[in-house]
């Protein structure tokens, strides 16, 4: 499988959880569907639907603050400003691994030429970002090994047989990420992840199930988990 990696970063980001209303909470890192949306923006595809997969590597500490903003709202045909409490990620940075057969070649060309058709941002228009090409690899999809190993990306909980806890690590679980985008603002399935708050690689014993709906590869001795 061909895998292309690129970095995105910004001073702030907001990936709103769909189950929040008055207070707009954020996911702790970029969801896979948003990462694919960035790829769609780079390629100029407005309603981007693909079977390609993505993996998310944290390049910065997960830091969340709450801020009250005056946002533009709508009501009864009139426009008004409404105070809204919103969670923001501070100084977020991610490495996106994009693999598959549909759009990888097109993405590689765009990234290498520093070209994007549409503006790219991290969840909200006030969090602009510029994707930076990192590299391209030909990787073999593997059955998860039956030995302890480190994962370079955030790890789907369904892949973990056992977590090997290490001193000085701050483990977090993030639930309820949308998994598959069907087009026309419709999603199906959800996925939960385990990650280390400071972006460190997690040491795990993977499950040996063959029906895991994800791609597992090895890069530089570490696991890549693409969903």
Automatic annotation (TrEMBL):
InterPro entries: CRISPR-assoc_prot_Cas5_N. Keywords: Antiviral defense. This is CRISPR-associated protein Cas5. It comes from Ureibacillus suwonensis. The gene is cas5.
């Amino acid at each position: 499988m061909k895998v292309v990696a690129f970095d995105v970063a910004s001073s702030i980001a907001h990936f709103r959880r769909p189950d929040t209303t008055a207070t707009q909470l954020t996911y702790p890192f970029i969801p896979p569907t948003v990462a694919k949306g960035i790829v769609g923006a780079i390629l100029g595809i407005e309603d981007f639907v693909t079977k390609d997969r993505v993996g998310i590597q944290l390049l910065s500490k997960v830091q969340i603050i709450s801020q009250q903003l005056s946002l533009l709202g709508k009501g009864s045909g009139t426009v008004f400003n409404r105070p809204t409490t919103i969670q923001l990620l501070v100084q977020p940075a991610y490495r996106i691994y994009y693999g598959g057969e549909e759009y990888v070649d097109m993405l590689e060309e765009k990234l290498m030429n520093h070209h994007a058709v549409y503006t790219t941002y991290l969840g909200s228009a006030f969090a602009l970002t510029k994707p930076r090409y990192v590299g391209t690899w030909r990787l073999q999809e593997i059955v998860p090994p039956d030995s302890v190993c480190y994962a370079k990306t955030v790890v789907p909980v369904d892949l973990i047989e056992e977590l090997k806890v290490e001193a000085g690590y701050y483990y977090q679980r993030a639930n309820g990420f949308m998994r598959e985008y069907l087009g026309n603002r419709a999603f199906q399935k959800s996925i939960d992840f385990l990650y280390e708050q400071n972006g460190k690689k997690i040491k795990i014993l993977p499950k040996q199930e063959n029906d895991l709906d994800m791609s597992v590869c090895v890069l530089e001795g570490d696991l890549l988990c693409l969903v």
